[in-house]
Amino acid sequence: VAGLVVLAASALAQSDPLPSWNDTAPKKAIVAFVERVTTQNTADFVPESERIAVFDNDGTLWVEQPMYTQLAFALDRVKLMARQHPEWKDQQPFKAALDGDMKALAAAGQKGLAELIMTTHAGMTVEQFQKIVTNWLATARDPRFKRPYTDLVYQPMLELLAYLRANGFKTFIVSGGGVEFLRPWTEQVYGVPPEQVIGSSIKTKFSMRDGVPILLRLPDVNFVDDKAGKPVGINEAIGRRPIAAFGNSDGDLQMLEWTTLGASGPRFGMLVHHTDAEREYAYDRQTEFGRLDQALEIAPDNGWTVVDMKADWKTIFPWE
Amino acid sequence: VAGLVVLAASALAQSDPLPSWNDTAPKKAIVAFVERVTTQNTADFVPESERIAVFDNDGTLWVEQPMYTQLAFALDRVKLMARQHPEWKDQQPFKAALDGDMKALAAAGQKGLAELIMTTHAGMTVEQFQKIVTNWLATARDPRFKRPYTDLVYQPMLELLAYLRANGFKTFIVSGGGVEFLRPWTEQVYGVPPEQVIGSSIKTKFSMRDGVPILLRLPDVNFVDDKAGKPVGINEAIGRRPIAAFGNSDGDLQMLEWTTLGASGPRFGMLVHHTDAEREYAYDRQTEFGRLDQALEIAPDNGWTVVDMKADWKTIFPWE
Lengths: 320, 320
Ligand SMILES: [Ca+2]
Ligand SMILES: [Ca+2]
Hints:
Oligomer: homodimer
Helix content of chain A: 40-55%
Bound molecules: calcium ion
């Protein structure tokens, strides 16, 4: 009998597509939504081709504290490139980056940050940059968890991505981060192929160099995929309106509005609220990275589900 | 016995995935390439996720004479909008458009053409524009064949798209035309969903209007997906290099270079050469729309397949 109980429990566990979620309201809302749009011969049924789900990345799929991973990458690149740039020792924002002086870096503002990003992200071909990112991710470690950054993804969100795909959804990433910083690893880590990743970008230029075609990355902003840029990026890349959107900050507000408001049929909007300082981080209105304020305020009125990480997630990371 | 022969012939016909292609060199090259990249445990095997094929649209998938279909759409829009713009009767380039004076229109140049496109394509939401395109296509007729424009697609290319997809390829359209002019109908006509259509675009702006989110189309060029813009657009939207590219004009030259040159593994490049004035049109170096000159010149050196429509295509249109 004990054997039978174990077997039954195991079968039950296997039949739960979201085992890392507690049986609280967010999980119930997700499952109810998916069942609603996939039940044939009902008014709310949505054909597979229209089952588009969009996910923010930083703070929604992986950790964004103590700073955006792409910023950690840029700072490491500055240190590496400094060998060829002795003048950076006395020149902001590079000095701040080299000293790890986050206060001076913040003082350099958007302009300083843009200069850092352009210097470290441009001037090579797209394929060279892809290799640089891949190599960095293979060796860099997060300061708190001492693990590769690609380990710091949320197990409940991995399950959610897989659950939606198993139900005929096409899953897209819509990130404020650089699209070419994400594409080298999103397929392996999230199951999201490069062509389903939307993000910020710098301009590229095509030319033939000694009979070989290259795309050179230029130090010019092409597109900023954040805030009101997210619906624009979604429309440009996908050309249809998503029916589900998942984010964690005010940068996702317009993406959630575009997905859930004023369109016919069932819609789903969700915000991940970081409430677990012990297992991950706790922050919302007072943070440099991933501020969540206005979106949290209007979530109830818009029917958006808010995930309380501490209460709603049984597990945070895949390796726990 | 006669019955058996009919059955065998029918089975044979069914087993040919490209029945509208004559058994000439292009068909053989296509089939050889597909078999090469799909045969497992060989050096040339390409995993499904990397089987990306890109197709130009005007002149490659559908007719582009006597003018680009999108230009015919713009001219019809000018006529419709002229009711609210009595001043256009004496104002270029609108006067030329209203009079159907193609010579005066050509004289207005790129600037005049851009003005026509902006006036007719901007100032509404993306959803309103989608409806305008759909309604126009439902009623407009091609001047020569007296058929809906979406009937003027090439049957051999429809078979090629389906053949590639049946072999695990993901098929994309990469057009110099406007992406939002294409997306309303490419899924139905070509089996290519909106998120696999890349094209030129104008800027859009997100805002909330009376609690409803809208994306407004602005009279500003966002991206020109032509010539050296095609590899840029491909990289931006797909993020990996295609292994097969299909075009018909010098506007596709860089896309074919990017796809076929300087990268490892099997690659396929093809140009459709319009050689059949009787069944369709015959043009290459001397045409306003779809000029094919330099790309035709360098095709042999680059190993690109050139389709001679008259000799290589058994059928041109699906309704023949
Ligand atoms: Ca975020
Ligand atoms: Ca063309």
